[in-house]
Predict the structure.
Amino acid sequence: MQIGVLSLNQKTTRWSRYGDYVFELLAHAGFPYLKISPEELSDALPRLSVLVIPTQTPLSSEDQKKIAEFVAAGHVLIACGGTSTLDEVLGCRNVAPLPEAWVGEHSDEHPITKGLTGALHAFGGHRIAAGADVEVLASWLDPAGYNMERGWQDAVMGPAITIRRLGKGAAVLIAADLVHSVVRIQQGKPVHVDAEPDSAGTALVNDGILKTDDGLALDYDIDRQPIANTRFFGRGIADEWRELLLRAILWGAAVTNTPLPMLWYWPDRLQAVGLISHDSDGNDPALADVLLENLQSLEIPSSWCIQYPGGYAPAFYKKLAQLGYEICLHYDAFTQRGRAYWGEADFRMQLDWLRDMAGVPVVSNKNHYLRWEGLDEFFVWLENAGVTADQTKGPSKTGNTGFPFGGSHPWFPIQEHKLRMIDVLEINLSTQDIALTCPLEIGPAVVDWAKAHYGIAHFLFHPAHAAKPHVAEAMRTVVNYGKEQGLPWWTCNQIADWERARRQVRFNVCSDQNGTPVWSVSSAAHVPGATLVWFGAAAPKSVGASEPVQVSIYGFPATMQVVDLQENQTMIMQ
C-alpha cells in the first residue's frame, strides 16, 4: 500500500492553481508517493492507504463515492484547502473562501498539530462548518482580534483542521490552502515600490532601493516575535506548513499500518547545516585578508560573493579555491555605473566577468543590497545563465531578521504565470552582520530553529566589517554555537549539490511471497552518507548499511540508518 497524491494541474481559480507544488514539498521531504491524475483515481485507490488532495477541487459524484468507500474500508483521506465536494466524507462543508487568515488555537495532544509553535499565516482556503462527529484540531483566527501585547483575543472564526472517523478509516481536513501558503510566503509579493515602514520603524524603510523584503507576504505585527529589544521573524512559518503536511501523512501511515521510508535531509544523520556568506562590498583586499584569517581560525568553509567592478586579485581567488571556499557572484543592480541596471544583460555581463577573473565555475549568487524587482523574473535569469543556487531572499533591515521568507529549508521557485518550476535552489538568508545590524541573541535563535526543524542557518558577514572586533567576535560566537549544536558549516554550492543529488534517490516497494514489503533504493547520483529513515517498521537490512538508530521525527518513532549510495546503484532492503 502506498501514499497517493492527486495531481490537479488546475489553473481555473485564484486559490487552487498551486496544487501541484505539493510535489516539490514531497520531493524535498524525501517521501515516496504515487502521483495520480483525476482520470486515474478510481484505478489507483486499491493500491493506496493514504490519499492526499493538495488543494480545493471539485470531484465527480463517482469519485466522491469511491473515496467514501476508500475511507470507510480503513484508509485515510487528507484534503487541503477546502472540502473538495467531499462534505459527506469529511463531515464538513465550505462556508466561504478565505483569501488570508491565520490558523491557531491548536491541539497539543494530537500528533498532526502537536508540533505547531504558534498561529500559521495562511493564504487561501475556506471557512468551514463542521458536524457534531468531527474532532477539531485547530481553528481559524481573525486578525482583527489580534493585539501585540495580549495576543489573540476573541478571534476564533471556526474550525480549520478537523478529523472525522468514518467506518474503519479517517478523513483529515486542513481548510487552509497549505500549498499556496508555502508558495506565497517563500516567493513573497511582486516588488515594484518601496514598502511602507512598520509602526516601530525597524522593518521597512523607504530608502529608494527596491529589495526582496519590500515584497514580504508575512505580517509585521502578527508574524514577528520579540527578542532583545526588537522584533524578528523568529518562526519559519513555511517550515511549519511543510511539517503539518508531513505529520498528517505520517499519521495516516501510522493508523493504516503502512511502513513509510524517508530519505533524510542531510547525510550521516545530521540534523541541520550552517552557511556563512560574505558580500565583498568595496572589494578591499586588506579587509578580505582579515576575514580570511578569522575564518581559517574557525576552520570552516564559506561562500564569498564578489561584487563588480574590480573584485580581488586573481591570486586571491586561487587561494580561496585551494582552501575550499566558494566564489559566488554579488550581482550589483544598484550602483549606477553609467549604464542601465536591473536587467538580464547586465547580470550576464557581471557573471561572465567574475567567471573569467576567478577562473573557477561560478554557480551561485546573492544580490548587492538584496536588490529585487518583480516576482520571479530574476530566478529565470539565473536559470538561463546556469547559476544553480541563490541566496538573495532575506532581510535588509534589523526588524526583518530571522525567517522573513518563511523558513530554513532550501526551495525551488515556481514561475507563477506559467506554473513552471525554475531550476534554481533558493537558500534563505537570516541576518546580516550580527552585533552590527541586529542583536547577537538572534544568532543562536536562528541556529536553534534550524536544528529543531532540520534546515539551514544562514548568516552574512561582510569583509568590510571584518576588522571590527565586536563583529568578528559575533561571527566566532555564532559559528562555535552552531558547532556545539552539531551543525557543520557548508558552502552554498555544497548545499545545492547535496540537495540535487539526494533528489535523484528513488524508493520502490514490492512484496515477497509472504506479503512482506521489500524495498529497493536506487540513485542516479553518488549520495555518500545517505540517511534512510523508516517509519512503521524495523529498518530493513542490506549490505553496507549501518546499524539502525532509534529516533523521533516530527513526533513519530522511526529508525535511521546510513548507506553510501553509488551512482546508478540499486540496493535491496529487506
